Amino acid sequence: MKKQLVVVKIGSSSLTTEAGTISDEKIVDHIEAIAFLKNLGHDVILVSSGAVAAGFGALGYPVRPKTTAGKQAAAAVGQGLLMQNYILKFMEFNIVPAQILLTREDFFSKERFHNLYSTLTELLHRGVIPIINENDSVSIEELTFGDNDLLSALVSGFLHANALIILTDVNGLYDGNPKESMEAKKYHFIPEITEDLLAVAGNSGSSVGTGGMKSKLLAAQKALSLGVSVFVGTGLGKEKLADILAGKGDGTYIGGPFHSQMQMRKQWIAIHSQVKGIVEIDEGAEKAIVQKGKSLLSVGVTSVIGEFNALDVVEVRNPKGQIIGRGQSYFSSSDLQKVKGLPSEQSKPFSINQKAEVIHRDNWVTLTKEWILDE
Ligand SMILES: Nc1ncnc2c1ncn2[C@@H]1O[C@H](COP(=O)(O)OP(=O)(O)O)[C@@H](O)[C@H]1O
Ligand SMILES: N[C@@H](CCC(=O)OP(=O)(O)O)C(=O)O
């Protein structure tokens, strides 16, 4: 894989303990994974939360303080402790980290914005890992970023990062808070952030996190609008970030593949094209195209919804009504109505190229984690 610029955001709960201290085990795991990614030749920018959560224990607070003064005091202590850990542990990998504390005003002024860009690019050029957090101990409450999810989205957008990886204490977005419902189901891939998805994303489930899944989705929406694809999830071990970058992460991929090796045609089908109709297929056809990488044949089509021309992009649904992917149809909707369920020999004459496939495998993308893995 060619060199990528990756922004990694780590939430408070993934760095600290409930008692308001740094978790050595957690922070070391992240540092090893970042060092591994860097050794593969990638550039990494870290957006690290955890200043308040790492500092309140040392100040004698039993739980995360609620007052502004309490949070700002805890952040003043915790930010130093975080950097102490980062500096010492990155040193073991001969990596120099740099601290950058930002306020929202830094993004308002064109000059400061430009300076920030120049500083970050210079640090990356020198092989340094910039570690960014909000300047919590001086930020004015009404003028904060809200949370670091949004900050990481803004940073990844303005540096044209190849990927934004948001590490948290849950392995992705579920259709309900998994800490509250055992029934909740995980989304492996979301092409875009919709109102329905925002409605299922709730608040923080931990005593130290702030925005919850909702703020991650809003941040992802911002990152996508700035052209950056996002992963939200978790992982363990030094290869976790490399795996996430390769599409093998334990979480939810949002927007599209991280690496640009995906053919342009498939990228267009998956992300940019307008869906003109719906094709429903049976179980055998689902297996053939998703698991075996085969083309979709007319015999597996059970119904055709909407009006479309040949070569338009259609959404394909399985018998459960789930969207399993998209592809370009070689049949118009009216021709497909005539040949649905028929063997290829009988449907061929209706196809624009006299071929049997309704959707050729080269014009198909499966909208699941496997789709990202396949490419
Ligand atoms: N639909 C959902 N899917 C997954 N997690 C959810 C959902 N709704 C709410 N959450 C909660 O969001 C939490 C992650 O957000 P947060 O606590 O702010 O983490 P961080 O400190 O990493 O930023 C999870 O622990 C989970 O309890
Ligand atoms: N800037 C704050 C963290 C704000 C924040 O977004 O926290 P989190 O939801 O854990 O990512 C801090 O360092 O304590």
Automatic annotation (TrEMBL):
<dbReference type="InterPro" id="IPR036393">
    <property type="entry name" value="AceGlu_kinase-like_sf"/>
</dbReference>
<keyword id="KW-0808">Transferase</keyword>
<feature type="binding site">
    <location>
        <position position="9"/>
    </location>
    <ligand>
        <name>ATP</name>
    </ligand>
</feature>
<keyword id="KW-0641">Proline biosynthesis</keyword>
<feature type="binding site">
    <location>
        <position position="49"/>
    </location>
    <ligand>
        <name>substrate</name>
    </ligand>
</feature>
<dbReference type="InterPro" id="IPR036974">
    <property type="entry name" value="PUA_sf"/>
</dbReference>
<dbReference type="GO" id="GO:0005524">
    <property type="term" value="F:ATP binding"/>
</dbReference>
<keyword id="KW-0067">ATP-binding</keyword>
<dbReference type="InterPro" id="IPR002478">
    <property type="entry name" value="PUA"/>
</dbReference>
<keyword id="KW-0028">Amino-acid biosynthesis</keyword>
<keyword id="KW-0547">Nucleotide-binding</keyword>
<dbReference type="GO" id="GO:0005829">
    <property type="term" value="C:cytosol"/>
</dbReference>
<feature type="binding site">
    <location>
        <begin position="210"/>
        <end position="216"/>
    </location>
    <ligand>
        <name>ATP</name>
    </ligand>
</feature>
<dbReference type="InterPro" id="IPR001057">
    <property type="entry name" value="Glu/AcGlu_kinase"/>
</dbReference>
<dbReference type="InterPro" id="IPR011529">
    <property type="entry name" value="Glu_5kinase"/>
</dbReference>
<dbReference type="Pfam" id="PF01472">
    <property type="entry name" value="PUA"/>
</dbReference>
<feature type="binding site">
    <location>
        <begin position="168"/>
        <end position="169"/>
    </location>
    <ligand>
        <name>ATP</name>
    </ligand>
</feature>
<dbReference type="InterPro" id="IPR005715">
    <property type="entry name" value="Glu_5kinase/COase_Synthase"/>
</dbReference>
<dbReference type="InterPro" id="IPR019797">
    <property type="entry name" value="Glutamate_5-kinase_CS"/>
</dbReference>
<dbReference type="GO" id="GO:0055129">
    <property type="term" value="P:L-proline biosynthetic process"/>
</dbReference>
<comment type="similarity">
    <text>Belongs to the glutamate 5-kinase family.</text>
</comment>
<keyword id="KW-0418">Kinase</keyword>
<comment type="function">
    <text>Catalyzes the transfer of a phosphate group to glutamate to form L-glutamate 5-phosphate.</text>
</comment>
<feature type="domain" description="PUA">
    <location>
        <begin position="277"/>
        <end position="359"/>
    </location>
</feature>
<dbReference type="InterPro" id="IPR015947">
    <property type="entry name" value="PUA-like_sf"/>
</dbReference>
<dbReference type="InterPro" id="IPR001048">
    <property type="entry name" value="Asp/Glu/Uridylate_kinase"/>
</dbReference>
<dbReference type="GO" id="GO:0004349">
    <property type="term" value="F:glutamate 5-kinase activity"/>
</dbReference>
<feature type="binding site">
    <location>
        <position position="148"/>
    </location>
    <ligand>
        <name>substrate</name>
    </ligand>
</feature>
<comment type="pathway">
    <text>Amino-acid biosynthesis; L-proline biosynthesis; L-glutamate 5-semialdehyde from L-glutamate: step 1/2.</text>
</comment>
<feature type="binding site">
    <location>
        <position position="136"/>
    </location>
    <ligand>
        <name>substrate</name>
    </ligand>
</feature>
<keyword id="KW-0963">Cytoplasm</keyword>
<dbReference type="Pfam" id="PF00696">
    <property type="entry name" value="AA_kinase"/>
</dbReference>
<dbReference type="InterPro" id="IPR041739">
    <property type="entry name" value="G5K_ProB"/>
</dbReference>
<dbReference type="GO" id="GO:0003723">
    <property type="term" value="F:RNA binding"/>
</dbReference>
<protein>
    <recommendedName>
        <fullName>Glutamate 5-kinase</fullName>
        <ecNumber>2.7.2.11</ecNumber>
    </recommendedName>
</protein>
